[in-house]
Amino acid sequence: MRMVGAKVPRVEDRRILTGRGHYVDDLQLPRMLHAAFLRSPIAHGRVTHLDVEAARAAPGVHAVYTGADMRELSKPIRSPLSQGAVPEVYPLVTDTVRFVGDLVAMVVADSRYTAEDAVGMIDVEYADLPVVMDYEAALDPSVPPLFADLDSNVVHTATKESGDVDAAFAAADRIIEVTLSQHRIANVPIETRGLVADYDAGSGELTVHAATQSPQGLRLQLAQTLDQPMDRLRVLTQDVGGAFGLKGNIFREDFCVPIASRQLGRPVKWIEDRNEHLMASGHAREERIAARVAVTEAGDILGLTAALDLDMGAYPGMPFSAASFTGVIALLLPGPYKVRGYRCDTRVVATNKSTYVAYRGPWAMETFTRERLIDMVAAELGLDPAEVRRRNLLEGADEDRLITGPTVRGITTRECLDRALERIDYPAFRTEQEAARAEGRYLGIGMAAFIENAPGPKEMRPGGGFTGGESAKVRLEMDGALTVITAQSPHGQGHETTLAQLAADEMGVPFDSVRVVHGDTRLTPFNIIGTGGSRAATWGSGAVMVSTRKLREKVLAIAAGQLEIDPSDLQIVDGVVSPKGVPGKEIPLARLAGQMTLMPQTAPPGTDPNLMAEERFTGEETTGSGWSGGVHACIVEVDLGTGGVEIKRWVVVEDCGRIINPAIVDGQIRGGVAQGIGSVLYERIPYDSEGTFLAGTFMDYLLPTSAEIPPIEIVHIESPDDDGVGFRGVGEGGMIVAPATLTNAISDALAPFGARVTEQYLPPAEVLRLAGVVGAGAA
Question: Within 10 A of 118 (CB to CB), how many other CB atoms are there?
């Protein structure tokens, strides 16, 4: 049975669902101590007094660290991958706090309870400084920068221009202007951040057990910042309870805990509580775009300009700062549409908020902006939004390119749109909508298209892109089992299943005989990203495939020598090597592997008895367009009595190339849609004008439950089967496109009231305001 394309049950599920998973907080080491942090209660202020002596003297407390200590024990934290202006930052603040939740001191004690009590004994005083809480304050040149070593609170600027912008706007019949915005949200994985650092003073070995998406990236940054030799630094990551981009970051706490372990010579654990997570782990999605779109009366989109502002919070993210994502926003903003002229001006600003972090398609502002603009163009011109899309979509022809440059040869966006509208029965809905309005009911339909370079066409990733591709190790064990060692660091995506499916097919062994190993920097190939950016489907899979093929070549060469037959005349089926069409001459892999391990000298001349392969996949074997993408459509009903929004249907038509495991792909899509729904109707990180954080519990930060998520109908447009790596990333698409789909549907429902939806957050009060039921102050 061929494994690729089959709905193989996830091998991880039995372990996780029966409570046998291994998470950081499950780790209990002998003599282990526990850390807790003193966090700033104010948004911006100078630390004028800090007395930790009472905490140090408390029973059970082993150490208290301050910013002054960290200056002695750590280098400034810098990432070689950061973009924009980067201030000097240490693990703990040295003089100034810059957001509510900033790290002032760390207590290490016998228990978390003792550490928390000792935190309360620290005497600290602050002198308030002016807060910078919005774009206007951050852009004001008269406002002092948050960091003295920076020139201003504008930490990054860039401009991207393509085509003839002036000519496009000169030819327009109409120019539509609007400012659109996304609000702050939190990633909220079920498992919060955490790590255990264990320093062995005898060997000088530092072992860090971490809930991270990037074990090798964390290892590299710790080594550089703490002056810890790389050969004596090991990061271990087992099960991770979700991340959604958050745990691809490296945090200041990640330096504090190893420093304490190294100083005290004992293991130290820190597990973030939920209040800390909501307040200080990092936030996503605070951007605004002032857009101008030039159109004809017939609905042709001629030109687009955008002024993008992104609020990165106080501190730059690590290893990728917020500025890293603005380039992708600028690249993809025009989308798969015919545009003659385009310009995007970008500014990234610092404010007194928690750090901007990646969250499942951190460039999603491009899709929200573009797809809202298309609906606004349609409304302004009195045209159907589906027809405006059809009129402007690129076909995916050989000569088709984004206005920003990359080829989109082979994309299927138009087919996805037609099939989504067919599935949802668009004409019938418009008839139903008209009848419902006559009855005083307000239905709406929304649609939105997206594309994602996952991995993108070859021209976007020469030589394997900026990471140089990805490696994997594959080893045939003495018993005939296959061990796959991947550079990926999964946190819910099912890589132990999908990579095993690929290896089983490539090697010709049963699925159950393949084991996937990940998360140990002593074993895994280097990959600074780990798992993120929808990379695994192409890069992780490709690395496993080319490495397994190399190992298979070795095995067939040995068997061919033993059987005196050409390797091309051999096959491996169910773990047995045999001549094609000639029964009786068989060599089980277990026998061959055992012989090569115990008696490598018996290998036929010219063959390699080392039954292991490590190959680097650089994308040359990739097939298809390189673009993931699709179209979502949903139907909603708005209750003008409550402002509630009921999602009646949700249809997804997507193209992610060849599908390794349909059940896992569908799960990724549904999870992303659920998060997108949450970000529109429920979730929001609020601060007041003084920088006070206002969503420290789940009573204030609302999450959707299964009751709020509708059934999600999924249609796949799948690429034909081939021997290449035709798999494309699918993990982020649902979250990228769902907010635009839902806001477009709500806007359509409220069209009779002249509502113009410009913000993504649409709780009941905002819906009622848009409908004119309540005044502006109610939201």
Answer: 25
- For residue 485, being part of any structural domain is answered with yes
Least confident of 215-224, 273-282, 382-391, 577-586: 577-586
Q: 502 pLDDT band (50/70/90 cuts)?
A: very high
Q: How far apart are CA 662 and CA 261, in angstroms?
A: 44
> Are both 407 and 500 inside the same structural domain?
no
Task: Tell me: do 220 and 343 sit in the same domain.
Answer: no
Query: What per-residue confidence (pLDDT) applies to 83?
Result: 79
Q: How far apart are CA 642 and CA 194, in angstroms?
A: 40
Asked which of 222, 249, 280 is the last residue of a domain, the reply is 280
Tell me which amino acid residue 766 is.
Answer: E
The C-alpha atoms of residue 556 and residue 122 are separated, in whole angstroms, by 68
| Beta-carbon contacts of residue 447 (< 8 Å; ≥ 6 apart) | 371, 385, 386, 389, 417, 420, 421, 631, 632, 633, 741, 744
pLDDT value at position 779?
52
363 and 317 assigned to the same domain: yes
The answer on pLDDT for 34 being more than 80 is: yes
Distance from C-alpha of 597 to C-alpha of 593, rounded to nearest angstrom: 6
Choose one of 218, 247, 280: the last residue of a domain: 280
Contact (CB, 8 A) for 632 and 420: yes
What the block records as the tokens of 643 is 């402002």
Nearest in space to 371 (alpha carbons), one of 763, 742, 47, 98: 742
| Phi and psi at residue 622, to the nearest 5° | -70, 135
Question: What's the pLDDT tens digit per position in 564-593?
Answer: 999 999 999 999 999 998 877 899 999 999
* Statement to judge: residues 607 and 752 lie in one domain: no
Q: What is the mean pLDDT of the chain?
A: 96
> Could you tell me if 657 and 749 lie in one domain?
yes
Helix axes 541-563, 589-598, angle to 10 degrees: 80
Secondary structure of residue 93 in the 3-state scheme: coil
> How do residues 253-273 score in pLDDT, each as one tens digit?
999 999 999 999 999 999 999
Task: Looking at the structure, tell me whether residues 738 and 690 fall in a common domain.
Answer: yes
Any domain includes 183: no
204 part of a folded domain: yes
Q: Is residue 5 situated within a structural domain?
A: no
pLDDT digits (tens, 9 = 90+) for 58-117: 999 999 999 999 999 999 999 877 778 899 999 999 999 999 999 999 999 999 999 999
Average pLDDT over residues 28-45: 98
Are residues 648 and 575 located together in one domain of the fold? no
Longest CA–CA separation in the chain, Å: 86
User: Is pLDDT at 778 greater than 60 in this prediction?
Assistant: no
CATH code for position 121 = 3.90.1170.50
Say yes or no: 408 and 480 in one domain: no
H helix or E strand, kind and range, residue 342: strand 341-349
Domain housing 576: 462-617
- The domain tally of the chain equals 3
Looking at the DSSP bridge assignments, the partners of residue 206 are 199, 233
Indicate which CATH number applies to the domain containing 584.
Answer: 3.30.365.10
Q: Please give the angle made by the CA atoms of 127, 130 and 133, to the nearest 5 degrees.
A: 130
- What residues does 670 pair with on adjacent strands? none
Residues 6+ apart with CB under 8 A from 747: 372, 375, 444, 446, 755, 756, 757
Which residue type, as a one-letter code, is found at position 348? V
